[in-house]
């Protein structure tokens, strides 16, 4: 039974439970507040006494810090005994201190993170919505807002990011389940906490417009415009202005706008060097599609390899009339069935030749799809309501409906169904891909998907392996650019001969052959007037594009995995398993799991069975930025003691 609640969001508060007259415990000492806050934040984890003392008394001598720690641990035990007398919450040994809430003490941050972790495996939109709402309700404000230590700031920023992501995820889920009022409320809260999030302003404009409140949609644009001007001195982005103008003119249409090719920039900013063979394969398979044989192509490669760019560039050069149905998967939408396919159809229903569908009496499959895609009622208002059916039958009917719609469009034009970021697709979407491949006949249909193994979980990797075994499924792996490819890229920038080769060699080191990173580094060097090859100390800071790509991978790691990767980076760009094992004092099986995770996320590569290297030479700084300076100092001291004893 819960006997007490500890609140870490906003200011620290210890609230006894069970007595209606109980008031929060008063903690007058700022240092004691810091100690309780730190231990509660790390509840269930043994904290080294040395580490705790260093966080609380960074300026004190080692002897003085130990003396202070003994005194304040005694005071903390007294306070916690008064808080929950029947439990021993704080255990202090010779080397470690442990705050163990067990079943008697509730900590808001722990529950917040547990709910968000559970949301990742939610089994239904209702389950997802419930967990997100519970988590969001716990966030009363920034973590321990009255404490300004480094260790607080790192955790505060991380939890604030999770809070904003939860709001975004909840808003999307509410939109997709038809709860416009809920989505408006959630997006409004998001903007209260992040008023410069222009994409959220656009989304709120669309939500107001969808609910019939055009005036508030236009007012939201003016609010966005004012915030950006006052705080950043900039104007809204072109897409925001275009959305506003369309709403003013009354030309904006919800969900069912024109369908065309995915937008390709007028000037290609990412070269197709190294992708010519992929383009030839796409051309060959398109020829087979035009002969009436449905094909499925999966472009596989880590982020920045140019998967989406390659597909867009290939589509842009196709001749003749065709229809492109674009859908995209998102990390937070994996519990919503058929999500990217529904996105594709929301933009394309006006292209369906409705008179080419099977007779009305055979259209039992339309009702389940209309339940997920209400726009269908605009074109077929007499669709009957859903009859009770098993989940398996309903799923089959939705897939059959999508196949029938594809064939109805395909009888007029060749069709490309382009699904981006399939590593975030829900299980129903994966099943539907195979169903469409086998079911759609007599028309020209090409299904194209992109997939990043670095971002995929075990379930998605298993589905990929199963799918590529099927006939007419083609896996095209986009590998890093070779030295010859990078030399050609440098030559496109005007360099020739040996200079181009030498520049390409350093570019390969900086980018690992990733096209996005290679181009980002070339641009950064050009902007700073630096010619490659250049000494490391003369290179510019890693470009924002490169940091964003690396941070997206680091975001996938758990807090403990992230800290151990930082320890590895402090040992050196190249480190051995044995050295990291000795320094970290972790169990070998734990460390092996983390090593395998870093390999899978494209953060390290193996030199041999025991030696590993960070994938990029500049990766160390982004990694270390994820942990506080006191924690870095702690590990540096430990590394020196272990390696130079």
SSE arrangement:
Elements: E1 4-7, E2 13-16, H1 30-41, E3 47-48, H2 49-56, H3 62-83, E4 90-92, E5 96-99, E6 105-107, H4 108-119, H5 125-138, H6 150-176, H7 180-193, H8 198-210, H9 214-231, H10 238-249, H11 276-290, E7 295-300, H12 307-316, E8 323-328, H13 339-346, H14 366-372, H15 376-379, H16 391-410, E9 415-420, H17 427-439, E10 445-451, H18 458-467, E11 473-477, H19 483-492, H20 497-511, H21 515-527, H22 544-554, H23 559-571, E12 574-576, H24 577-584, H25 588-600, E13 604-606, E14 611-614, H26 620-624, H27 629-643
Parallel strand pairs: 1-6, 7-10, 7-11, 8-9, 9-10
Antiparallel strand pairs: 1-2, 3-5, 4-5, 12-14, 13-14
Molecular structure report:
This protein is α/β, with parallel strands linked by helices and 645 residues long. The chain folds into 5 domains: 4-108, Orthogonal Bundle (Arc Repressor Mutant, subunit A); 195-254, no CATH class; 276-477, Rossmann fold (3-Layer(aba) Sandwich), CATH 3.40.50.300; 483-541, no CATH class; 557-643, Arc Repressor Mutant, subunit A (Orthogonal Bundle), CATH 1.10.10.10. It contains 27 helices and 14 strands. The strands form 4 sheets. The protein has a 5-stranded parallel sheet, with helices on both faces. Strands 2-1-6 form a 3-stranded mixed sheet. β13 (604-606) and β14 (611-614) form a beta hairpin. α1 packs across α3, α19 packs across α20 and α23 (559-571) crosses α27. The protein starts with a strand and ends with a helix. 36% of the residues are buried.
